[in-house]
Write a structure and sequence with these properties.
The chain is an alpha+beta fold. The chain is 22% helix and 29% strand.
């Protein structure tokens, strides 16, 4: 991760300037505006698709309560979700070793 001039962790991957990125699976977009416009979630979703990340958050510090300014954004096209969904119980053995057979 790179640290920007404002002391926050910033990343610039594939031309995407994200405010914060976590350990491979999430992205955080920071805002400080009076209203949470739908374009912010769309922007976050675009970043997720470009970076192939599954989960993002839009955090808006412009509301009196931070709880009001949190929006969860997901990318179902992410490789992470496809890998998680491919792990089905049918691919594992049906024998329970703790059953005392």
């Amino acid at each position: 991760m790179e640290t920007g001039g404002n002391g926050m962790n910033e990343a610039n991957y594939a031309g995407v300037h994200a405010d914060l990125t976590g350990k491979i699976i999430n992205l955080v977009e920071l805002k400080a505006v009076c209203t949470l416009h739908p374009v912010f979630a769309a922007q976050c979703r675009t970043y997720l698709r470009m970076l192939d990340l599954p989960v993002g958050l839009v955090l808006n510090f412009g509301f009196p309560s931070l709880k009001e300014g949190i929006e969860h954004v997901s990318n179902p096209r992410s490789t992470y979700f496809r890998l998680q969904n491919s792990k089905t119980p049918s691919s594992e053995s049906n024998i329970n070793p703790h059953r005392g057979q």
